[in-house]
Each structure stands twice: as structure tokens, then as C-alpha cells.
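User: I'm putting together notes for a lab meeting next week and I want to include a structural view of one of the chains we've been expressing. I don't have a solved structure, so I'd like a prediction I can at least talk through. The sequence is below, exactly as it appears in our construct file.
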Amino acid sequence: MTRKEKAAFVAEKLAELYPRTSIPLDHEDPYTLLVAVVLSAQCTDKKVNEITPLLFAKARTPQQMMKLRVEEIQDIIRPCGLSPMKSKGIHGLSRIIVEEHGGKVPQSFEALEALPGVGHKTASVVMAQAFGVPAFPVDTHIHRLAYRWTLTTGKSVEQTEADLKKLFPENTWNDLHLRIIYFGREYCPAKGHEPLKCPICNVIGRKELFV
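Assistant: Thanks for the context. Below is the predicted structure for the 211-residue chain, given as C-alpha cells.
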């Protein structure tokens, strides 16, 4: 199979398995989504969903969040890990949203990536899931699966994102990145993976998976 043919197979199989997609991070609006995605760095979605109700009970708007002390935010989000960095980022981005963007989460990659604690992947998730702008956020899990499926050389997440964007139609990106995440958790984990039982790796997986 060519890469294009493999991509078509992947898209068809994932749509069959996950016809409906929703982001696994609980949120109510673009701001609460942004905060949740910042918290999700090196933390499970399950843990983030346990912590965000506690944080949002204290502050669920950027105006309220910037009034908290960084230490207050850190105490709440500590179980998510990297709390010193994340608390400063959440406090800082909230202040900038209020002071420079009228209290609303900006709707551009450039403006989002200029916020403290917000990188390209986080900005891509917000643009895709909050504003419906085509984006293909590539985390370590999508990076791993794309390499397993020989859709990319796997040299970097940036390269993987570029390769996947070339292979899949733009109007499928927002659903597809979520479908890959769901599939990775259910069928294609980093550890304990059984390629012969995997509906995709069994067809197009790298040969070394079966050694």
C-alpha cells in the first residue's frame, strides 16, 4: 500500500469505530478548554477532569483567575504535575486575555501561542475544538501511532504533523486527531500492545512490531 492508501484505510477504520467524537477534557467554553489543555501536559485527561471542577469553583473566567494568587492556583492543580510552571502560565495567560483581548480567548494561532504556557499543540486543540478551525494537534500518542502505521518517518512531532496534514483532507483533521487518540487508548497503547489484535497495525503496522 502507498501512504495515501494507508491513510485512507486508517480514516475509514477510525470513522467506523468512532463515528462520533468529543474532546475528552471536560469544559464549558473556550477559556475553560484552554486551561484544561494547559493542565493536560504530562497528565492524564482523567486526572485533569478531577481537578478542573475544583479550580473552576474558585475561578472559571480569566477575570476571576487573574485575581487569585499563583500559589492558590498551584495548590489546587498540584496533582496534575508541573504545578509551578502551569500555575504561572494559567495566571499569566488569564491576565493577558483580560488586558489584551477583552476577556475573550483569541481566535488565532499566533495570539494563542504568544500566551504563557501555550505551545503549538495546545493552540491547535483550542483552535480546532473551541473555534472549529482545521488543525491537527499531534501529541506523543498520535506521533507514536502515525509512526507505527508508517504514515510518517517519526523524526519529530512537527514532521509528523506536516506529514499527516498532507495525507488527510483538511475537513477531517479535527475529528481525526481525536479518533486517533481514542484508538491509541483502546487498541494501540504504548505498552502491552498486541499488533496481531490491533485492527490497524495488523494490516499496515511496521514489520518490527511483529518480531
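A couple of points you could mention at the meeting. The CA atoms of residues 69 and 91 lie 8 Å apart. The chain has two domains: 3-21+136-210, 30-129.

User: Perfect, that's what I needed.
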